């Protein structure tokens, strides 16, 4: 079976979209100055994978960082969008679950104030 190759212009555009989705997620995380050593290492690894167009590996590092920092719901929504763009349908339910947990944490903290 022959698989059709994606035209270069389309591939480049898709890569830009994926990069943007992951960077939107990253921007919702704590600043580097507020991260512990493990967070800084994960962020460095994420950047290396992103620069090398190893998007699935970059996504995995962001996911680890999100768990480490109890990321907000929007973070998980951006990871979900990146997973959709990468055709990683097996990751989508997990990101939706994490988003729901994050929203629950937000609602709980609002109820305490």
Model description:
This protein has helices at residues 8-26, 37-51, 55-69, 73-85, 92-112. It is mostly helical. Helix 1 runs parallel beside helix 3, helix 2 packs antiparallel against helix 3 and helix 3 packs antiparallel against helix 4. The model has no long low-confidence stretch (mean pLDDT 92).
How would you sum up this structure in a few lines?
The protein is mainly alpha-helical.
Question: What are the defining features of this structure?
Answer:
single chain, 113 residues, mainly alpha, Serine Threonine Protein Phosphatase 5, Tetratricopeptide repeat, 5 helices, 73% helix
What CATH first level of the domain at 36-112 would be assigned?
A: Mainly Alpha
SS-derived structural category: mainly alpha
Which regions have little confidence, pLDDT < 50, spanning 5+ residues? none
Give the radius of gyration.
16 Å
Number of beta strands? 0
**Number of H- or I-type helical stretches:** 5
Question: What is the general shape?
Answer: globular
**H/E element sequence:** HHHHH
Strand content: under 5%
Query: Per CATH, which architecture of the domain at 36-112?
Result: Alpha Horseshoe
CATH topology of the domain at 36-112: Serine Threonine Protein Phosphatase 5, Tetratricopeptide repeat
* Separation of the first and last Cα atoms: 60 Å
Compute the average pLDDT.
92
**Percent of residues in helical segments?**
over 70%
């Amino acid at each position: 079976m022959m698989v059709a190759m994606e035209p270069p212009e389309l591939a480049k555009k898709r890569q830009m979209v994926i990069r943007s989705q992951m960077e939107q997620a990253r921007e919702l995380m704590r600043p580097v100055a507020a991260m512990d050593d493990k967070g800084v290492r994960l962020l460095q690894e994420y950047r290396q994978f992103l620069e090398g167009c190893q998007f699935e590996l970059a996504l995995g590092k962001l996911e680890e960082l999100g768990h480490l920092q109890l990321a907000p719901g929007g973070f998980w929504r951006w990871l979900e969008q990146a997973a959709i763009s990468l055709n990683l349908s097996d990751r989508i339910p997990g990101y939706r679950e994490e988003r729901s947990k994050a929203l629950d944490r937000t609602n709980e903290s609002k109820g305490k104030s």
